[in-house]
Design a protein that fits this description.
The chain is an alpha/beta fold and 237 residues long. The chain has a single domain, classed as Alanine racemase (TIM Barrel). 41% of the residues lie in helices and 17% in strands. The protein has eight helices and eight strands, in the order αβαβαβαβαβαβαβαβ. Helix 1 crosses helix 2. The longest helix is centred in the first third of the chain and has 25 residues. The termini are close together. Bound molecules: pyridoxal-5'-phosphate. Pyridoxal-5'-phosphate (PLP) binds next to strand 8. Pyridoxal-5'-phosphate binds next to strand 8.
Length: 237
């Protein structure tokens, strides 16, 4: 594929994702602008990200800090915001915090206490989501749902980290309707927790839904969807 073909296809893909998001939002009684698209760019290099940004993608997500860093540098002149959506190991927090507006993968109290300490040293107030292991899969990261009622007051006591909501990954081997159960479980958990906690902790955001299930996620209350492969369909580079 030549560059104009890639450019055209990416613009088309982005328009289609946005259209489907809008339809799903309206179907669930919300306005399309109430759901944020994080364009996940971990599969592609900067040369494919440029046309995506030109087509209007304004919020980009990377799952690995080591891939995020050089891309932020290469795209420094563009008006985009970055989210880190994958595991943020402790030794990568200091370099990553100044680059991102949101961390989707707050995975434990200890992890977020470390993030908080470094944020304090850097005078930053990172917005974080709490990753919840809704599927109960032991190989996955995140808080178990039953840990959250205890963790929330301790998270509320952190002075730099700002908790804004919950995030989940649907179980891997599942279709969209199985994912729906994970998504509605996350929303119900959020609704229960909201009643019991806390000043300084907001649970307004629900980050859930990827290429295979973002419409279902929106129907179940997602405020943020993380879409990667659907944006790059039909493109070879
Ligand atoms: C890769 C990734 C996505 C996007 O997945 P697609 O199926 O390609 O849309 C979303 N969230 C996380 C945490 C990811 O690592």
């Amino acid at each position: 594929m030549n560059a104009p073909q890639i450019r055209h296809r990416i613009a088309q893909n982005l328009a289609e994702v946005r259209e489907r998001m809008a339809v799903a939002a309206v179907r669930s009684g919300r306005r399309p602008d109430e759901v944020l698209l994080v364009a996940v760019t971990k599969y592609v290099g900067v040369e494919v990200m440029e046309p995506l940004i030109d087509a209007g993608a304004a919020v980009l997500g990377e799952s690995r800090p080591q891939q995020l860093w050089p891309k932020v540098e290469a795209l420094a002149g563009r008006s985009i915001q970055w989210h880190i959506i994958g595991q943020l190991q402790r030794n990568k927090v200091r370099r990553t915090l100044p680059l991102v507006v949101m961390i989707h993968s707050g995975e434990s109290l200890r992890h977020l206490q470390a993030v908080d300490r470094i944020a304090g040293e850097l005078s930053l107030r990172p917005r974080v989501l709490l990753e919840v292991n809704t599927s109960g899969d032991a190989t996955k990261h995140g808080f178990m749902p039953h840990e959250l009622p205890q963790a929330l007051p301790e998270l509320a006591a952190l002075s730099h980290v700002e908790v804004r909501g919950l995030m989940c990954m649907a179980g891997l081997e599942t279709d969209a309707e199985a994912a729906r159960r994970d998504f509605s479980a996350l929303r119900e958990l959020r609704d229960r927790l909201r009643g019991s906690c806390c000043d300084r902790v907001s649970l307004d955001e629900l980050s859930m839904g990827m290429s295979g299930d973002y419409e279902v996620a929106i129907e179940e209350g997602a405020t943020i969807v993380r879409v990667g492969s659907a944006l790059f369909e039909g493109i070879s580079w």
